[in-house]
Write a structure and sequence with these properties.
The protein has two domains: about 50 residues, Arc Repressor Mutant, subunit A; about 120 residues, Tetracycline Repressor, domain 2 (Orthogonal Bundle). About 75% of the residues lie in helices and about 0% in strands. The longest helix has 26 residues.
């Protein structure tokens, strides 16, 4: 009779992500995860095969969480420019600068792995579509405004990180309100 898993893969991957957040991607080893999860290293190797596969699975699970969070927020905001801003502000809940900086280490890992990069590209398309939907009834909204807003959002996060005065949410909100106002007031390009 097969043994039942004492801990689901999802729970193990949550522990792996916590390890990465606390100590960086290099800290994700089978030995460290065994200590953190209470499972044996050999059990972890049996489940995930290699350190690279373990890291990829943990980061894919993180992408799943971001997909879910994005879809939940997109469904909850009004279909308006203010709703688009609220969606991006809701995705900006990083806490303090140290947490944001640690998150960039995860981004580095995503950029190194072609499958994780592709996952990020899919999320970008989904996010842009959700933002576009918020502007569907907005006169003068430029084509592909979702892509433009996503780029402005990412830029505002980077600029905040260099001078993290105040909350990231307020910085993002202020930046996006000004951006949307400028876009909607601009004359269409010839």
């Amino acid at each position: 009779m097969p043994r039942h898993k004492a801990m689901t893969d999802e729970t193990v991957l949550e522990a792996a992500l916590a390890l990465i957040h606390e100590r960086g991607p290099e800290a994700l080893t089978f030995e460290n995860l065994a200590r953190a999860s209470g499972l044996s290293g050999s059990t972890l190797v049996q489940r995930f095969g290699s350190k690279a596969a373990l890291k990829q699975a943990a980061l894919m699970q993180a992408w799943d969480g971001l997909d879910d969070r994005t879809a939940t927020l997109a469904a909850a905001v009004p279909r308006s420019p203010a709703g688009a801003i609220a969606l991006l502000v809701g995705l900006s809940d990083f806490g303090e600068i140290e947490a944001y900086a640690e998150g960039l280490l995860l981004l580095r890992e995503d950029l190194r792995d072609p499958e994780l990069r592709a996952r990020g590209a899919r999320w970008k398309e989904d996010l842009a579509a959700a933002l576009d939907a918020c502007f569907a009834d907005t006169p003068r909204a430029p084509a592909e405004i979702g892509q433009l807003m996503a780029a402005q959002w990412q830029g505002s996060l980077i600029w905040w990180s260099f001078d993290p005065q105040g909350s990231v949410a307020e910085h993002v909100r202020h930046s996006l309100v000004r951006f949307v106002a400028a876009l909607l007031a601009a004359e269409p390009a010839a």
